[in-house]
Write a structure and sequence with these properties.
The structure holds two protein chains of two kinds. Chain A has eleven helices and nine strands. By secondary structure, chain A is of the alpha/beta class. Chain A folds into two domains: 15-124 and 251-320, Bordetella uptake gene, domain 1 (D-Maltodextrin-Binding Protein, domain 2), CATH 3.40.190.150; 126-223, D-Maltodextrin-Binding Protein, domain 2 (3-Layer(aba) Sandwich). In chain A, α2 (43-59) packs across α9 (262-277) and α2 (43-59) runs antiparallel to α10. The longest helix of chain A is centred in the first third of the chain and has 25 residues, at 2-26. The radius of gyration of chain A is 22 Å and the shape is elongated. In chain A, 52% of the residues are buried. Chain B is an all-alpha fold. Chain B has one domain (2-497). Helices cover 74% and strands 1% of the residues of chain B. Chain B has helices at 2-14, 17-35, 41-48, 57-82, 93-102, 106-139, 144-161, 166-181, 206-224, 242-264, 271-284, 297-312, 314-320, 326-337, 344-349, 351-381, 387-406, 409-428, 433-456, 462-465, 467-486, 489-497; strands at 183-184, 191-192. The longest helix of chain B has 34 residues, at 106-139. The chains are: A alpha/beta, B mainly alpha. At the A-B interface, α2, α3, β6, α7 and α8 of A face α3, β1, α14 and α19 of B.
Chain lengths: 321, 498
């Protein structure tokens, strides 16, 4: 009797393995949705459309980009976490934006960080500090001046509790200064305000200010990274300047609702990795001033949870204030 | 002389048959996007970017720019014919355009819109070449406090001139501002007044509300009335009457100027210029009380401002690399994908692209005119369909439009709900325009107010310390006070006696 049951269980297990393997073999047999939680035309959307166009050739099925904008990405991620984990619904995720939305109790998020499986990263865009060319020449000048008049120098922040603000908080802690924060809705109005002398300093990413820098309209003081950026080879990093704790970036990648069978997950990872490594993808992303950074599997998972802990620290810090 | 050389170079690029074809395709696609409600110019342009991936940069940019201004015109068609604005900038065109269509004068309404768009667009492009650099740097002086003050002026203009009662207009303005408060706090992202409904996190959708208030509300009111006779449109009716040409040309002139100057200021968006053009037209008119009953200048001026704005907004984009509206941000993304960086260096590095684009803006305006004038007859023919067949069609069109926006049934529900609200307001004869404008401007106003206060550390005096915002706020106060005096019961009685 026990034996029969054992065989039965074994048989079921075998059937299960067989079916999931068959499903992976079969996958994908219909179009795959790639959801973007931001409006069409933004950098996440552009990145998604570029990689979708390359990946769909290798999947042999269309990769359809759908925009579900709203609540700073929160609507889209909430939707993503709710989907069936069958590999046909993927979404663009952004760190730390998604993580702070989860962590900030005011945002009333209905999903948790573990509800989303990070699959592959596409771009890692470090936060920078920039000023107008007629002002501070070095990071040291800015810090010295800020120490003299705490809370007087105004700094534009591209989004509340996003990478730019975390970068600022690390800067404030590391350099022991305090600026007057002015929040903007995205990079374009923030840069306009810097150029128009409505704020004096700007915290934003490379993708946000590269074009203005190239045109000679702004001066870069530092980039919050351990390594120098391909886009600004002459720009000293925070680590080089002696502030290794100032380390912030906006990272974009592809995620899925948790629970996708391993073989399917592997296939998605492989196809997108190949697509992202293609010259076509690299050239187009670089043309859009997005620094490519491909992380998968354990590496990306670790990055995701490291970012979670950093975000947690600063969300709690801001809420206590 | 150098400028002339650039012109010539630009035109030689833009008149290449392949580039002419791209401009034509762009105009057709853009008009289509404009006609479909829900699909706005920004989303439409973004979705079409991938089809330009394999084109050369000049062709791609010419086509995308054509899509952009084509959409700005296309929105007019449905505003006039079925009272459903195809995109936000055409909301104002509903007021008189649709009334004209109801009187069988849809042809002249569309005709004057096409001509006004052509004039406004062409002038703005011309000015773009001449004055772009000095004007663009002036526009940078509009920081958050100045933008806030400008929005206050816009709201007080619409409120002050909206209806017979200042009180009703003020109530509607606050109704719109309240609706605008629903959703996420614009800075911290905390949900407000959402009652836990996730669909409300991003606020009350503008498109469902407008389609509800105007489209559905209109149908509900019409259902009460006996079936009207079919509107007959003769071909001779396609052009405005002789008397109307004079009125219209002055209106077109004013619309051009308003659209052009507002286009230079980044972040204004396409809606304010049209509203401002409309209320200015009403203010200078000899018969302001007839506005909203189908006067031609009520169509001519905002439609002109719309396209003048669209072309002028290229100035901050091309010279400073600052996109003034969401659609232009999309267009800038397209520039960058094609390896072109908008900004002063673009003029030096790729004069062929800049001047080719500018020249193609001229040609595009001509193409739009040629494309749309003959089609006006065709569009106007739609009006000959009996209402009992037309209304279900419009209703279906509204539902599709509301749904297609986010593939959301919630949006459709909102639209129906606001259709009922619109019906009630119509019955009360309370003006819809202030509510709509407040709903559109509310988030921008709240954000610029809060950003200004962040800049000053919470000090309200920032609005009066800065000269531009101080002047604008005084202007706004003056507008409200004069309207209040004009509408005082005592004066109103006197006026009606006269």
């Amino acid at each position: 009797m026990k034996r029969k049951m054992f065989l039965g269980v074994l048989g079921l297990l075998g059937l299960f393995v067989f079916l999931t393997a068959a499903a992976a073999q079969d996958y994908p047999n219909k179009p795959i949705m790639l959801q973007v939680p931001y409006p069409a035309g933004g950098s996440t959307d552009v990145g998604a459309r570029i990689v979708a166009a390359v990946a769909e050739k290798q999947f042999g099925q269309p990769v359809v980009v759908v925009n579900k904008p709203g609540a700073g990405g929160q609507l889209g991620w909430t939707e993503l976490a709710k989907q069936k984990p069958d590999g046909y619904y993927l979404g663009m995720i952004s760190m730390p934006h998604m993580l702070t939305a989860i962590l900030d109790p005011e945002r009333k998020s209905t999903f948790k960080a573990e509800d989303i499986t990070p699959i592959i990263s596409q771009a890692l865009d470090p936060t920078t500090i920039s000023v107008r060319p007629d002002s501070w020449k070095t990071m040291k000048e800015l810090i010295d001046d800020a120490k003299k008049r705490p809370g007087q120098i105004s700094a534009g922040i591209v989004g509340y509790l996003q990478d730019d603000e975390i970068g600022y908080l690390q800067f404030a802690e590391g350099a022991g200064v305090q600026l007057r924060l002015v929040y903007f809705d995205g990079a374009a109005p923030a840069i306009t305000a810097l150029l128009g002398k409505h704020v004096d300093v700007l915290f934003c990413t490379v993708g946000d200010n590269y074009n203005q820098w190239k045109a000679g309209k702004i001066r870069m003081l530092t980039i919050m990274d351990k390594e120098r950026s391909k886009f600004y080879p002459d720009l000293q990093t925070t680590a080089e300047l002696g502030y290794p704790t100032i380390l912030s970036a906006a990272t974009r990648g592809i995620g899925a609702p948790k629970g996708i069978p391993q073989p399917i997950l592997k296939k998605i990872e492989d196809v997108f990795k190949k697509a992202m490594e293609s010259k076509d993808h690299l050239d187009k992303l670089e043309g859009a001033a997005q620094p490519v950074k491909i992380m998968t599997g354990e590496e990306f998972n670790k990055y995701y949870w490291d970012s979670f802990n950093v975000a947690k620290k600063w969300v709690e810090y801001v809420r206590k204030k | 002389m150098e400028a002339l050389q650039y012109w010539m170079q630009g035109f030689s690029v833009a008149t290449l048959p392949i580039n002419l074809m791209f401009a034509l395709i762009g105009c057709v696609l853009g008009t289509l996007i404009g006609v479909l409600p829900g699909l706005g110019p920004a989303a439409g342009t973004a979705i079409l970017i991938p089809i330009t991936f394999n084109l050369d940069p000049i062709g791609a940019i010419i086509m995308l720019a054509a899509i952009y201004y084509g959409a700005m015109y296309g929105g007019t068609i449905t505003s006039v014919l079925v009272n459903v604005p195809g995109e936000a900038a055409s909301v104002i065109t509903c007021f008189d355009g649709y009334q004209m269509a109801k009187q069988g004068r849809g042809g002249p309404a569309l005709g004057i819109a096409a001509i006004g768009s052509f004039v406004g667009g062409t002038f703005a492009t011309f000015a773009l070449m001449v004055v772009s650099l000095p004007l663009a740097s002036f526009a940078l002086r509009f920081g958050p406090p100045e933008v806030f003050a400008l929005l206050v002026v816009g709201l007080s203009l619409v409120t002050g001139l909206a209806g017979r009662s200042l009180l009703a207009a003020l109530i509607m303005t606050f109704f719109g501002l309240l609706l605008a408060m629903i959703g996420m706090d614009p800075v911290r992202g905390a949900p407000r007044f959402t009652f836990g409904v996730q669909d409300l996190y991003d606020g009350v959708g503008f498109v469902p509300v407008v389609m509800g208030l105007f489209g559905v509300g209109e149908i509900l009111v019409s259902m009460e009335q006996p079936v009207l006779e079919v509107i007959k449109t003769k071909l001779s009716d396609l052009f405005p009457k002789r008397k109307e040409w004079g009125i219209s040309s002055a209106a077109i002139g004013r619309g051009t100027i308003i659209g052009f100057f507002l286009g230079l200021i980044p972040g204004i968006g396409a809606i304010i210029p049209t509203f401002l053009a409309y209320v200015v037209e009403k203010k200078v008119s000899k018969h302001p009380e007839k506005f909203g009953t189908g006067v031609i200048e009520g169509v001519a001026s905002p439609e002109t401002a719309n396209n003048s704005y669209a072309n002028a907004a290229m100035v901050p984009l091309l010279t400073l690399g600052i996109p003034g509206s969401p659609t232009l941000a999309v267009l800038m993304g397209a520039f960058i994908i094609h390896g072109l960086t908008p900004g002063p260096f673009l003029f030096k590095e790729r004069p062929d692209v800049v001047w080719g684009l500018i020249a193609s803006l001229y040609l595009g305006n001509v193409i739009l005119l040629i494309l749309n004038l003959p089609l006006v007859g065709l569009w106007a023919k739609l009006l000959e369909i009996r209402y009992q067949y037309l209304y279900p069609g419009i209703l279906l069109f509204c539902i599709l439009g509301a749904y297609s926006l986010n593939q959301s049934v919630f949006d459709v529900t909102m639209m129906v709900l606001f259709g009922i609200v619109g019906y009630v307001f119509r019955k009360l004869d309370w003006p819809l325009a202030p509510a709509i404008l407040a709903l559109i401007l509310g988030p921008m106003m709240e954000r610029s107010l809060r950003t200004s206060l962040e800049m000053s550390g919470g000090d309200l005096f920032i609005f009066f310390q800065r000269p531009i915002s101080a002047v604008l706020l005084i202007l706004a106060a003056a507008i409200l006070v004069t309207s209040a005096i004009r509408l005082m019961p005592m004066w109103a009685r006197k006026e009606s006696k006269n």
